[in-house]
Amino acid sequence: MRIYNTLTKQKEEFIPIIPGEVKMYVCGPTVYNFFHIGNGRTFIVFDSIRRYLEYRGYKVTFIQNFTDIDDKMINKANDEGVTVKELGDKYIKEYYEDADALQIERATVNPRATEYIEDIIKFIEELIEAGFAYDIDGDVYYSTKKFSNYGKLAGQNLDDLQAGARISVDERKKDPMDFAVWKSQKPGEPSWESPWGLGRPGWHIECSCMAKKLLGDTIDIHAGGMDLKFPHHENEIAQSEAITGKPFAHYWIHSAFVNVDNKKMSKSLNNFFTAREILEEYDADTVRFLMLSGHYRIQINFTKELLDSAKASIERLYNGINNLENLKEEVNKKIMDDEERSYLKSLDKYRERFVEKMDDDFNTADAISVLFDLTKDINNNVNIGSSVELCKESEALIRELGNPLGILQNHIKKDLEAEIQALIDKRQKARKDKDFALSDKIRDDLKNRNIVLEDTPQGVRWKHIN
Ligand code: AMP
Ligand code: ZN
């Protein structure tokens, strides 16, 4: 398996620290609002990567944090007249509701920054002792000049970074690129006791500390959205490697943005759709299909048309499953014969192709094309004369390959079933009444929806055609 490593800017063979196990840390949401589908893409992408690693037999420890203390949290809590803790509790609950609805598997642990304050303080003390951080009037800064590798993830040295950065001017810092690891309390802000007085942790230190605490000094995969590469992840590396002297993460994976009119979807630009509002209109399979139908390192320019086209595509895949589910219910005594067995064996090539695509830096776009090819093959070859076992095995294979993408795990929509059955009954009655105009119309309308009717000894049955 090869992964594009942002640190080395090339695809590398994936070799985990412990064979068969993966330690993965993903930067999670700041819990001050409902998440938007830009955030959702990042969560879906890393959920699929995790699912795929599991599909390939790895035992994955998947950590995704909640940032529950920072300026945005404090401002929003003040606006809403609640405590920062209450705000965090509320939006963590909402996060789970939306993430579950998007068929995102629960993390092994979702650590909350505020539950690790003691460890964070210890981490900062170690940084100060080792000469990598300094305290000025209750604020503690990381000394970027002390870390000779600063800029290795961004691929720039400190001077170039400084020239390009928009940094907050703070006369007291030793160097403009230094960043806060501990912030002294401002009036009205929540705070914790520390050796530097009352205050709260900076954002970057949270992830360094929780990753070390939960996964150890070196982890296999560290991931997040592209915007986190610099400065967030650069700073995490500087902090963690200063303390341990070991590489912090072997593979860095960054997923591309969801844009709107070529601008990053973000709360500040107010150009976002929450996952929740999208889920009112579209199902999770559709949203996931959209997010995974392009490679994770390529930006998506979001439109509703794109969602509509994802909806039509996922329906085509579900139609394949629908047909098989219908066929399974037919009374058919046929036992799987050699011909069917060898046909089933021939489907293995789709599994191999799927794995080949996903092994190549999680190419979900190409993996989805394999799913279409597989479904088409099955649709053309498994039919009313096939054994129930072949139907079951074919369906199981489609679902097996859908699982790493978190799609195609649901059952056919019963309301669609009922609707079509009602139309079939209406058509039968029209035929009996010799109202052929009506019966033909019903048949033609269904055909326009890619549904064909077949007369069988068991009565009229319907089938989707692609
Ligand atoms: P936040 O809540 O802003 O800290 O973001 C949570 C996660 O979503 C981070 O990994 C971000 O990099 C990611 N993210 C934020 N905006 C977008 C976007 N427009 N497209 C894709 N990922 C995003
Ligand atoms: Zn982080």
Walk me through the structure:
- This protein is of the alpha/beta class.
- The chain folds into three domains: 2-280, 3-Layer(aba) Sandwich (Rossmann fold), CATH 3.40.50.620; 305-405, Anticodon-binding domain of a subclass of class I aminoacyl-tRNA synthetases (Four Helix Bundle (Hemerythrin (Met), subunit A)), CATH 1.20.120; 414-464, no CATH class.
- It has helices at residues 37-55, 71-80, 84-101, 117-129, 158-164, 203-215, 229-244, 275-281, 284-292, 304-329, 338-346, 348-359, 364-381, 388-402, 414-432, 436-448; strands at residues 2-5, 10-13, 21-26, 59-64, 133-136, 139-142, 179-184, 199-201, 219-225, 249-255, 258-260, 263-264, 300-301, 451-456, 459-464.
- Helix 4 crosses helix 6 (203-215).
- The radius of gyration is 27 Å and the shape is elongated.
- The relative contact order is 0.11.
- The mean pLDDT is 94.
- Bound molecules: adenosine monophosphate and zinc ion (ZN).
- Residues 27, 29-30, 38-39, 41-42, 224-225, 227-228, 257-258, 264-266 line the site of adenosine monophosphate.
- Residues 27, 207, 232 line the site of zinc ion.
- It comes from Clostridium gelidum.
- InterPro entries: Cys-tRNA-ligase, Cys-tRNA-synt_Ia_DALR, Cys-tRNA/MSH_ligase, CysS_C, Rossmann-like_a/b/a_fold, tRNA-synt_1_cat_dom, tRNAsynth_Ia_anticodon-bd.
- A motif ('HIGH' region) lies at residues 29-39.
